[in-house]
Known about the structure:
The complex is a heterotrimer of chains A (281), B (302) and C (353). Helices cover 78% and strands 0% of the residues of chain B.
Amino acid sequence: MSRVGLLPGEGGGSYRLVVCVLAGIGIVIAAAPVVIIFIMSFSAAETSSFPPSELSLRWYESALALFRSDESSGSQAVGAALISSLQVALVVMVLSVTACIPLAYALVRGRRRLRQGMELLFTLPLVFPLVMLGIAFLLLAESLRWELGLWRLVIPHLALVVPFVLRNCMSAMQSISRETEEAAISLGASPLRAGIDIVVPLMKPGILAGLIFAFIISFNEFTITFFMYTIDQSTLPIWMYSRTVSSLDPSTLALSVFIILIDLVMIIAIDKIIAGRASLF
Amino acid sequence: MPAHEQTLQSLMRHQSAARVRRWRPDSALWLLCLPALLIITPFLVACLYMLRFSVSADTGSINGFSLQAYAELAQPYFLRSLWLTLKLAASSTVIVLMLAVPLAMVIVTTRSASWRRLMTVVVLLPMILNLLIQSYGWILLLGPAGVINTTLLQLGMVERPLILLFNEKGVLLGLVQTSLPLAVFPLMSSMRAVSQEYLEAASGLGASHWRSFVDITLPLLKPGLIGAGSIVFAFNASAFAVPLLLGGRRVRMLGLAIRDMISPLFNWSGAAAGGMVLILIITLVLVLSTWLVSRSDVRGGS
Amino acid sequence: MGIDLRIAGVSKHFGEFQALKGIDLDIEQGSFVCLLGPSGCGKTTLLRIIAGFERASAGQLLLNGSDISAVPPHKRDFGMVFQSLALFPHMSVAENIAYGLKFRGVTGVKRDDRVAELLDVISLPAIADRPVSSLSGGQRQRVAIARALAVQPRLFLLDEPLSALDAQLRDAMQIELRQLQQQFGVTTILVTHDQTEAMMLADKLVVMKGGEVCQQGAPQEIYSQPATAFTAQFLGASNILDAIASDQGIVQLFGADTVFSTEEAPGTALKLSVRAENVILDRAPHPSGGPCAEVEFIRNLGASTEILVKNGATTVRVRLSSRDSILRTLAIGERVALQFDPEGCVVFRADAD
Lengths: 281, 302, 353
């Protein structure tokens, strides 16, 4: 008799086969684009014959060259796009976490009503279609005609990132007992001091995960930035889009691999930090 | 002494209510919410601004009140786009659920922690990674000069490249891929709640694997399926990057249709109204699913 | 000895619910006071009001005569041990103990000395640099106590600190706690729902119920002379029997006269509280026409034997020494006469509570 369970072991017959095949298709669909980019970025040929007949790093070289010959292209240069991408992501990361730490504290410690209302408010950007966020912010920015600079991208990204950061901070906050905090206070720490000495250090896993989430989301953001970017304020994804709108350029593939690697490292870091303790969604 | 017991119980209830009380005044907590409220304010203002724009009498600026913009949506090009959106969102939801349930099952039951972690990361990837890069991947694989077409041509199996992308099928594939993690992760947690013992009991009573899947697993997963399905539907109905990058401008889902109103036409109020329609659809789906889940919870609980 | 803390008319409302109803309590300098009661009786709320984590809705807290109601908890200079112990998980043992010292200007070598001294006191000198997560239950307990005592608190507060320990360890810790308290001479208030623990530790026992103090006094006094049936039951009396005052001023049980007299009016409903070990069994019929019952259950527990006897719907629990001669022949279904040792018995009005 085979082991009974969600997925039976040996001897599951057609059931097991169907489940495994479908799951396999799912994995392939999820991973195919990344894998193919990775392989093809090492191809020496101009065509997409597969597997690549010859391997080389020529596309990586030309991607590097893109950074060197900044002035060659008429639009914003790739170096500038990368720098502004990083700037936006860093500002978004720091601001969102700074705002979410006290908020998470207030929501976890506060009355249920306060918590429910605020949670709803701060999940709103998640439910809101990205296109609409893009259009809404564009409408606002165009009507106000303020010179926002970097903030033109930072402000919409913040709204997008806050739900994720808040969730991570809150799940970390929930595991901190009120008594731990009160213990510090009973020993003579002021409430603020207890927050700094006790709450923030104990929230660290959530804060780290939040920081990384904020970075990943902002760094990869495409749709909202697609509406909001200007010639001066653009990001790497937009630069790549404008470059490849007509045809695929293998050097952008090399660039993509670079971005994929950054993302992978970050995902693995998050996975390590919150291993099994919090949910991602 | 039932009366005594009752008071004791109510006392205990109050006691636990007492435990959660803070000694800190509420105003301090509000103060702590302030920075985050500040951060989210532009978003709220932008949303209200768009709502106001959608009822403007002028297409280019806020001027008077009129439902003109909404009325004008009843044109074939918008209705076609609405229909296409609903169709693609619905079919992608069905496909995603069909893949996500087995996938969640396999991940949950995999015993090796490192394999489980690897699969989790692979499934998570489409959600985290830049949509642009993922669409590069699809174009490389399925495009006219992509890996599959090149291979088929070289093998002489086809004479002209197959059109695999830049049509509805391509967009559907992209939608399925990007929304897969949205379904897999919630399903994984509801899967963990399906007790091994139920399945053992069913098997002990003579149910085959298929039988106990249909009779035990699926009904227990129902709330999870509804929840995951509605999220996937909402996410895909509002897709923008996928049809933009994989649809080749031929697959005009709502997101693209709305963008087109702005970019070539400068019909701001029309775009705002179209957006409100999209938001309405998404809200309806989410509310409906919450209602369905709470109803099935009530039935399960009795 | 002088009064250290006077609790005067302290009430606490949570919305419509009144958790504390005008508590008056004097706590003497250097004494060990136990607040005892079932969950929901308001004992923890009272302790939290004393600590400053809750504000009283009415009343005053007078510490050495000055009202401290408005003093925030971090300025009260009390040491507290929490139910969960609340050790700081991201700090070492020494850092935990030293945490309160930095707010009192104790730094450097002086601080290290104080930490070493306390680790010595709790007989765990070698664990200073260990993370708290590596400690056993008993060790955590000691560290939590040391952390609270390190700051030389004006008042030492403990909220069911031993409830997480297993029975054996709890016994050992009770003794240790009592010794520590005497060594430091610190006025101590401990909250517990465990009557044995309270009896073991307290100089003064405060029994609480429904937000009120039922009775306060020395443990032995409350044990032998409970003021209400509730207190009697809570302090381990196993039988609270319905009785009635007869015309002659005698307490009647099961329609028969007992040896107890009462001043209540004839016909008043009474309660007779009897500990199991204070019931004496004899062969029926009763020599002086007293109450009888039928043996329902016998179980030898080694040194003692537990017997349940029944009259009508009422079951009386009896504990005899296993060497009691009546046990040799006692059989289930047999009728026996009930006699009571007046030492362990108290009579209340049924409506007094």
